[in-house]
Amino acid sequence: LAVVLAAVAAWTPEFVLAKFSEGSFGVQASTPRSSTSSAPTLADVEAELAALEADRSIEESQKGVLRQQYEQAIEALRTAAEFETLAQEYRLAIETGPERTAERRAELQDLESVEEAAAVEVSGGLEELQSRLELRRARLTLLRAELAEVASEAARAEGRPLEISARLVELQRELSAIREQLTSAERSGESESISRRAAMLLLRAREEQLENELEMLQYEQQSQSIREELLKAQQAVLSRQIENTEAVTDRLVREVNRRLAGTAERVRAVADSMPPGLLRQSPTTQALAVEVKSLADELEKAVADTRQATVAEDEVRSGLDGLVA
């Protein structure tokens, strides 16, 4: 463990970013952005679209073409902003991932063993034990849902390297095409018009979208191993927490069943011990005996329901184990 923690500690943000800049992870830190012109802002494009809609001098047929270009530019800029947010998340993963992974591993070391968890004290009344059992089952549901989510994320991450590599090649090609169109349009000497402006805005918005996607994918690629290690550590912690909670739940189930069965047996014994003659002579006593037996039946049903719930939990547990594996 000391060796592993020492290796993780070496992955400081400075070390990672230095390696990233050197291209040691198979990608460059960034791709030079176009120097032809700055990308339009979302607010600017939305304002121009509003001005277009209000301009009565433009024919409706032309306005429809221009409207489509502005709307496409707006969508491209919104997507570009999403890619920028993702890139920031991946950069943050590079900076904080190793420390968070070390924390999760330390948390795992501090957790009880399954044997220690199973030795939980089960003193208290039956109602108190049943309440504790319900709380444990609710916690199990939450933990299993969280583990399933982490396992799904890990499965998605596993297939990302090939997808990213393929997309990076496509992005470079798409960016080159967009930049060629921009350069050609800027060198054409064509006079400024609303049609030309809308076309240029759309090209620059798409360029911004592609550049942000490229940067995002590069940071995703770079942070891949760091995020995978964190996911593994999270899975290990959640798996132990689930195992411990299952052990406590099983212990409580056995104790609740034992007490319910014992109570049902005593109640039924009381009803069976009543003399038949007394039951015949006293309708009230006979009704009471029937009620007592009914109570015993309900207690035995409660035991059966608890056992059925335990079987259902075992099925859930088996399915989750298969997902995590």
Can you walk through the features of this model?
This protein has helices at residues 2-9, 13-22, 42-54, 60-110, 114-118, 126-158, 160-187, 194-272, 276-281, 283-324. With 325 residues, it is mainly α. It is elongated and about 110 Å long.
Q: Count of DSSP E strands?
A: 0
Instruction: Indicate the overall shape.
Output: elongated
User: Tell me about the biggest sheet?
Assistant: none
> In angstroms, what separates the terminal alpha carbons?
23 Å
Taken in chain order, the helices and strands follow as HHHHHHHHHH
> Which percent bin holds the helix content?
over 70%
Beta content comes to under 5%
What is the radius of gyration? 33 Å
Summarize the structure.
It contains 10 helices and no strands.
